[in-house]
Specification:
Radius of gyration: 20 Å
Helix content: 40-55%
Structural class: alpha/beta
Order of helices and strands: EEEHHEEHEEEEHEEEHHHHEHEH
Length: 310
């Protein structure tokens, strides 16, 4: 029987991903479960139910959990560590449950480039994983993009997270599609993005990046009314505008301080592809890391560091 070492979990607002990790600290098996918004506070019951088959086979393994499970609506609230922060500091700040068998990873905070407070939970673990999977990130200055509901743009220096900036691009896209007339109500926004319409939205941003996004987004409706955009392509065009604006603004604000030609993108294949397309269209170079692999690697780093601290 394969030896399992620990269980790792990324418990987000809408989704839970659990990983059974083996000798090489890589995922042997994966389980999906309900997000924080669906367990109604019953984290312990939900977790025990999901991993019962694993514990029956492998015993009471150590567990490392990151994400919303450590938020104010989580199992236990962990602190936000102020940036700059190093991996060892994150490991030391984990909250222990069940006599240390379970560790909850803290979130991070900073004052971003706009002088505003900013916060992350879950992405810090992916960044730790990226440092392990991509050793070049451990040396020099680097800009990292973590696309999602709340996209994060992070600056790493010699393996230390210096600061980050949040853009709620995915949340705004979902809200505009569901609650406005910018996208027809009968369009399935979860279907495949039309690449031509998406690229068209990107071009509009590239043509005049200084134009305010609010002065652009109505085009996803007005172009349909004029017959210049197919109704089924409105969401793709809107996505191009939003992601293009996100990328353009982040590059103007953050890339000059980093002075690196490469942006590392960590995320799902779908979002990484869209952000890579936008970065390339705006003259950025891209290196993509799989988000799930980064999560597993980051959880493994926390597991190793917490063991060494004991």
């Amino acid at each position: 029987m394969v030896t399992a070492k620990f269980i790792g979990g990324d418990w987000g607002t809408t989704h839970l991903r659990l990983f059974l990790c083996g000798q090489e600290l890589t995922a042997l098996e994966q389980l999906d479960g309900p997000g924080a918004n669906r367990v109604c506070g019953a984290y312990e019951k939900a977790l025990d139910s999901l991993i019962r088959a694993w514990t029956d086979r492998h015993g009471d393994l150590p567990i490392v959990l990151c994400g919303m499970v450590g938020s104010s609506i989580g199992w236990v609230e962990t602190p936000y560590l102020p940036c700059p922060v190093q991996p060892e500091q994150i490991a030391r700040a984990c909250i222990e449950l069940r006599n240390g068998r379970i560790r909850i990873v803290p979130g991070l905070s900073c004052r971003n480039k706009l002088g505003a407070p900013d916060f992350m939970r879950g992405e810090e673990t992916q960044l730790l994983g990226a440092l392990h999977l991509e050793p070049v990130l451990q040396r020099g200055l680097h800009l990292v993009c973590l696309p999602g509901t709340h996209t994060k743009w992070a600056i790493l220096q010699d393996g230390t997270l210096q600061e980050f900036l949040t853009a709620p691009t995915g949340e705004i896209f979902a809200s505009l599609c569901a609650q406005t007339t910018l996208v027809p109500a009968d369009v399935n926004v979860k279907s495949e993005i039309n690449s031509d319409a998406f690229a068209r939205g990107l071009r509009r941003i590239r043509e005049s990046p200084e134009t305010q996004l609010l002065h652009r987004v109505f085009e996803s409706r007005s172009l349909r009314l004029s017959g210049e955009l197919a109704p089924g392509h409105a969401a793709s065009y809107l996505s191009g505008l939003l992601i293009g604006s996100d990328v353009s603004g982040a590059l103007r604000m953050l890339a000059p301080s980093v002075r690196t030609p490469v942006v590392h993108v960590i995320g799902s294949s779908h979002l990484s592809r869209l952000y890579s397309t936008a970065l390339s269209a705006l003259d950025g170079e891209v290196r993509v890391l799989d988000g799930a692999a980064a999560s597993v690697a980051g959880l493994a780093q926390i597991y190793q560091l917490t063991r060494s601290n004991n």
